[in-house]
Amino acid sequence: MSTARRERITISDIAAQLGISKASVSYALNGRPGVSAATRARVLHLADELGFHASSAAVALSASRTGTIGVVIARDPAVITAEAFYMRTLFGVEQYLNEADGQLLLRLTGERGEDLDVYRRWTRQGRVDGFLLYDEHDDDPRVPLLTALGMPAVMVTSVALDDGIGRLVTPEAQTVQVMLDHLHSLGHREILHLSGPLVYAHERVRMQTMASEGAARGLQVAHVEGTYEFASGAEATSALLRRRPSTAPTAIVAGNDIMATAAVSTATDLGLRVPTDLSVIAWDDSVLCQVARPHLTAMDHGLMGKARLATDLLFDLIAGGTQVHRASSVGTLIVRGTTGPPRR
Amino acid sequence: MSTARRERITISDIAAQLGISKASVSYALNGRPGVSAATRARVLHLADELGFHASSAAVALSASRTGTIGVVIARDPAVITAEAFYMRTLFGVEQYLNEADGQLLLRLTGERGEDLDVYRRWTRQGRVDGFLLYDEHDDDPRVPLLTALGMPAVMVTSVALDDGIGRLVTPEAQTVQVMLDHLHSLGHREILHLSGPLVYAHERVRMQTMASEGAARGLQVAHVEGTYEFASGAEATSALLRRRPSTAPTAIVAGNDIMATAAVSTATDLGLRVPTDLSVIAWDDSVLCQVARPHLTAMDHGLMGKARLATDLLFDLIAGGTQVHRASSVGTLIVRGTTGPPRR
DNA sequence: CTGAAAGCGCTTACAG
DNA sequence: CTGAAAGCGCTTACAG
What we know:
6-stranded mixed β-sheet, Rossmann fold, alpha/beta, 3 domains
């Protein structure tokens, strides 16, 4: 009856109805000083009654604040849709955003650097206040790019570099210790580390840590670089098993759930028993691990919690925070059916 | 050297450097008439050289256009991270957006109606130009809400209602025909349809279609409502197998990959052989289907392509298009190791 | 505590 | 074809 033609309700409407200035409405709405408690209450009440929500464009334009963070994932669809990693991570981010009333702008690009253009464009267009970064590469071009653009960013990574961007650092050393201690106590002495692609910084860290921690325990740790794909896990496993029954590894630590599942499948197909003839640990737990037979022993890294931590750090930096490093806590080893004493 | 203090490059900068008006720059940039070819070329060249990207806030505020679509997923994290459905769907959407230079605002909420608030808020805030809708319920409250808000929307569904919102309609009848023909030709006469929750409109359609198409082929089709979860598939399967060897179904059509995998696992655990003693089809193909043993026979619905179609329809409606219904094409049955002739 | 006014960076009729 | 100007809906010093 009142606002027939005009679709949108603005602070001008509220100001007019209350007989005060737009400025007062703005101050009241944003919880800033400059209005009396009584005026503030009247504004908030009317805004609620009218279902008022400030135009994000107007806020962004005048206050240079979008309330939006960006996530750009540059990975092959075939791999990414197979792993649960990103979906869990996104859920963690969203849990935080639901509470903090933030928004997520998401972009899935190919692996050939198209992502750099998205960071640049979104920044110039003023679409986001900051970025959450995953899958760090060595000399990752995103770090200098975002630094140059002056855009807050948090890398979820295993490397605690001091390059100015925010970093949520995974304690890979502790993760490796948990897995190696488990295998060591079962009696394994020779282990194969089937990693993901070494272009990823965290895979390099894991490889080095597996080697050093293995040596510290008197373990032989061999390494093979995989692709995260099923075929890659199958191939590495059959190659390993062809060396039997010499001094081949009795256990495989696989870089993701897919390759771990492949290892179990392949061993079983070749007539071996898991875990008696071969033990397998998956670096990341997932439904796949719970559904495969036998169920896979795997690390639960609390991915949703990690994502929340990362998002919290990012909002902190956006708000002007200066503490750029934060550490996530070590995960839990879920012992299921694919690890046991080796026969030998 | 020139723009030291001022971070952002604006059309005013371009206009100044070229000695023309802001309006001309705007026309040139947006490919609209009102500038000579020569001027347009100079503008575009300089904009490119300066790495100019228009402020999305300013465009949104003045032109009421964000270039952003919203997707709000109201599902339990445990289920959603297990299925590949949404990740594939998001990839399809993103493929389209990468080409059309559109953006995606994503929100994952709980299942208790919090999503309605997000639709309302994003609309009032002017954050998006339209919504992509999934998981239609009977009398879905989102339809009247978005209609009232005057917001373009496309529901990806199995129901071709004429309620004004856009609909990309899955041909469930054809899908059912493909699966039933396969089972029928193998010799199955009694089939169990283990559906997902019937609160979803597409599950109701599937149930009705399974019944009618089954009857048309002289098949007995029983129905059990599942939850999409592993436990649900396991339970339904063991209940079915307890009825053996009477006139129990010899095949299960399961509503998603998780329940299908559960059916195979459970049957195997109970000492039955798949597919000899029990055949299983998964309604949606996934890595899980390819990794499980035996590999699962499943429908490939071309989810990424469907998502692209839906996004295309949405942008069409946003641009003023009036054709609200579009049909997606039927998927392909991938015959693997879980379907074969029944023993009987 | 309150109001008038400038400004954010675009788009879009409207005159020339 | 081109320019001057108003307007989108907020925020934010700046006076009172």
